[in-house]
UniProtKB/TrEMBL annotation:
Protein name, as recorded: ATP synthase subunit delta
PROSITE patterns (UniProt xref): ATPASE_DELTA
Ion transport recorded as keyword: yes
Subcellular location: Cell membrane; Membrane
Domain of life: Bacteria
Gene name per UniProt: atpH
Amino acid sequence: MAELTTIARPYAKAAFLFAKENNGLAEWEQMLDLAATVAQDATVRAYLDQPELDRAQQAEAFIQVCGDELSEGARNFIAQLAANKRLNLLPTIRALFHELLAADQRITDVELIAAFELEDAETEKLVAALKERLGRDVQVSTSVDESLIGGVLVRAGDTVIDGSVRGRLSRLAEQLNS
């Protein structure tokens, strides 16, 4: 995985810089989402893996599947990826592009995992606290994991805040066993 990220990073940076220069960050994010989804489709992958297709034909087929959703710049980007046998990197490029966009806009993606569905007021209170602690705007996604028993597990990039009952019980058990 680290190797794919290393290979994909220059492409993501190039796409990001091009999009930023042309005031099209949101548009490029949408186009990369579409392209990554197409690249992950098993039928598309099987078609593109045919040995009788050259790289230009692969690019043209990929662009046709995406339809009119791609700008001229994105079509050129896809053609360049195909020419370098890198179409399979599109999901990684999309993720890296999103990270660059979030860093540029000072936004952090945060995942809130709770033992039960959070009410809007609780979510807003957590978001306000996280904004203050992280010093950035926060985009939140929530999910439910009943095995937490109670409380919330917060994931923001490399930062994990375990405020769950399960986490507290685990830490207590560690202390008792040491």
